[in-house]
Amino acid sequence: YLAAYGIDLKLTRACALAWEQAEAAGIEREAFTSDWHDVVTDPAVDIVVELIGGEHPATEIFTTAFEHGKHVVSANKALLGRHVETLAKKARACGVQIKCEASCGGGIPIVSTLEHDLVGNKILTIAGILNGTTNYILTKMVQEGAGFEETLREAQRLGYAEADPTADIEGIDACRKACILADLLFGKHTDPNKVFTQGITRITAADVEAAGLVGCNIKLIGQARRMADGKILCMVTPALLRKEHCMAEVNDVFNAVMVHGNGVGDVMFYGRGAGDLPTASAVLSDVIEIVRGGCRNAGIIGWTDEGDAHLADRRDYDIHALVRIKGMDFAAVEKLFKDCEPIWEKDGETAALVYNVNEGELEKILSGLDAAPYIRMFDC
Questions:
Q1: How far apart, in whole angstroms, are the C-alpha atoms of residue 139 and residue 130?
Q2: Looking at 77, 177, 188, 219, which residue is catalytic?
Q3: 99 is catalytic
Q4: Are 87 and 97 within 8 A, CB to CB?
Q5: Which residues contact 301 (CB under 8 A, 6 or more apart)?
Q6: Sequence-separated (6 or more) residues with CB below 8 Å from residue 86
Q7: Within 10 A of 370 (CB to CB), how many other CB atoms are there?
Q8: Residue 6's pLDDT band (cuts 50, 70, 90)
């Protein structure tokens, strides 16, 4: 970096629970500490990199670093997704920055792109496959006809899924990332607890079959879009993607993020969404950006928290959806909806694509029937 950018980086302090972790990473003994206070209060440290995850002591690391005039680079999607507005206010008051490229999409440079390269656009939609574990499971279900439970066990065996996979399979991880991206784009905090979130635990072989018959794959999509009424619709759900869609064949543990701007149109970013080296790549890019002075006009410097006023209610809008209803033939299903297309009738169940139906009305109709959870069509 000295030759390329005129930047001479020095690792001044490193903190871990045990010396063996630091030793394995090539850290010199005199730079090691097991107390994070030693890092964030050291006058020789300009930038603190936080990679422990969770809310505590990460929150205290952030705030103490700010108070000592230090920028923070983090991959902590759990903390930033929930409390970024509070941390941003604190950082702004202390005249420092938060940088978080590694928090969304691993090594995919989506945060920097939104902060710099696409600022000439009014961004209308950002959407993507934001969780590698769920994408691996859905890929195996589509390609091999495997069931959800057996594929989850295989993902755990390979190390793609944690022993407790709840945050992945229930969509929580993707929701945190979607909220951070929405915050960066629209300048208002989006609370993950207020975002409609569905995971993939209810996706069955029948859903995969029905999707394939209409030329679609199922992906877990996190999205934030600017609606015609000016509100922001943010949600995480399984979605049908036409196989010709740019994200439909993003498989295994890979991530992809698509952005639609009023000037640039559609652009897509694809790559590894997790792992030590992709994360390190993103972290180092943030460090270099700060040192080069890019932090002066970019990064999380603070935005307004207006509660939920800017959030759209998904039930107010029309969608296309795959529905499966037991105990009804297609003629009966057709009477329920003004515009639908049959997929199959078998084993006492009917599958159909329903077009241009208000989501709130769709929920009411299906609530009184023996119906499987519907799956939206991704239409961007």
A1: 14
A2: 177
A3: no
A4: no
A5: 88, 91, 92, 97
A6: none
A7: 12
A8: confident
Q: Which residues contact 78 (CB under 8 A, 6 or more apart)?
A: 53, 54, 55, 176
**Residue 274 or 355, more confident:** 355
Which amino acid, residue 152?
L
Q: How many residues does the chain have?
A: 380
Q: Is the pTM of this model over 0.85?
A: yes
What angle, rounded to 10 degrees, do the helices at 77-94 and 58-67 form? 20
303, two tokens:
């935005």
The pLDDT value recorded for residue 274 is 78
Look at residue 249 in the predicted model and tell me its pLDDT. 95
Taking residues 88-95, report their average pLDDT. 91
Backbone angles phi, psi at 279, to 5 degrees: -65, -45
- Tokens 């050291």: give the residue: 42
DSSP classification of residue 18: S
pLDDT-derived band at 301, boundaries 50, 70, 90: very low
- Residue 143's nearest CA partner among 254, 256, 251 is 251
| Burial class, 356, CB count within 10 angstroms (exposed 0-12 / middle 13-18 / buried 19+) | exposed
